[in-house]
Every structure is written in structure tokens, then in C-alpha cells.
Amino acid sequence: MYPEPENIWQTxxxxxxxxYIAESTWAFPTLETIxxxxxxxxxxxxxxxxxxxxxxxxxxxxxxxxxxxxxxxxVGAFVLAAITGGLLFVSKAxxxxxxxxxxxxxxxxxxxxxxxxxxxxITQKTxxxxxxxGTGEIPTGAKVAGLLSLLFWIMVVGFGRAIGxxxxxxx
Length: 171
Known about the structure:
Elements: H1 8-13, H2 16-23, H3 27-53, H4 63-91, H5 93-96, H6 100-121, H7 127-130, H8 140-166
Helix pairs in contact: 2-4, 3-4, 3-8, 6-8
């Protein structure tokens, strides 16, 4: 039925899970819908925090409170997006791995992760000095982290949409 896998990506794609998702009339669209909803939640909650860092919105709430209130939603939605994204990947692994938009999306998500880690480990150390109700001066490093985060996640969305329009073009 399926040819002998020639590489790791085909091995993943020809797995029982990969075949089921690819051949099911409901599995792929359902997973894709959940993935999009989860990703929108991730980006929305991150945007709230980033806009606060940029001093554009949410100034009546301490950054600590805002971050705490949104973090659980961000993490939960990211886990759901990662699981559904992984399952979508399994169904077309060899196609995704030659699609430059998929590779760029993964690269930009890695950059967003590095930006987040740097912010939490380095920049956020000075949070006590600027974590006041709209009156503290947000440091340049925090503003840069917020701006980069917004740009990276917008790029993730753009590349993600491009993947859907270019499946089957790159071989």
C-alpha cells in the first residue's frame, strides 16, 4: 500500500498515526482547527503582555499581575498547539520538511523562545524597579523583547498560512 520509507520523515508519515490522520475525513481538519484556536490564544495572550512592555496598553495593571494572569493561558494553549501541530506534522512529515515556510516557521518560533528565555532570565531581573501601575519607566531591554516577540509571532502566523498554500509545491 505505502512504499518502503526512504528516510525518517517518511517513516513518521507512514506510521499508523500519520496514515490515520492523513486518510481520515475529519482528523486533519479537526486537528488543524484546534491548532489554529490554540495558536490564536497563544499569540493573543503574548500580545497583551508585549503591548504592556511597549507601554501601549495595560498600564493600569502591574506587569507582574498581567503576566501571572496570562501565563497559564499562554502555556496551556502552547502545549495544545504543540500537540496538535505535532500530529499535523506526522501526517505529512516529508512534505513539511521540504517546505521552506514550515522551516522558517520553526526557526522563528525558536527565536521567539530564545527571546522569551532571555527576557525572563536577564531583563526581568530588574522588574521590581519598573513594575508599578503605569508610572515606572520600562527599560529598553523589556521594550525590545516585547517588540521582537510581537514581530516573531506575526511571522509565525504568516509562515503558517503560507504552509497551507504551498503544500505539495516543494519536493
